[in-house]
Amino acid sequence: MNKSQLIERIAKEEGITIKNAANVVNVVFDSMADSLAKGDRVEIRGFGSFKVKSYNSYQGRNPKTGEIIKVREKKLPYFKVGKEMKERVDSE
Known about the structure:
Layout: H1 3-14, H2 18-37, E1 42-44, E2 48-55, E3 58-61, E4 68-71, E5 74-81, H3 83-91
Helix pairs in contact: 1-2
């Protein structure tokens, strides 16, 4: 399922316009992104949680040239699936 399919499904199931459903989805995703950008954790009970993980710098290789390069430290979003979702996916 992609974002536009999610919007269509919400519009259909809730009996609202595509535009209103798109606004709802955008507000939810923007709010989650804003929280993660501030370093906060986002938890959706029964689904999973998102948090930001920090990674130290390290030496890597350019795959084209084989040249050793320094990869700078970075922060990336990380998703951990919830127990209920894990069980639901595993049972189907």
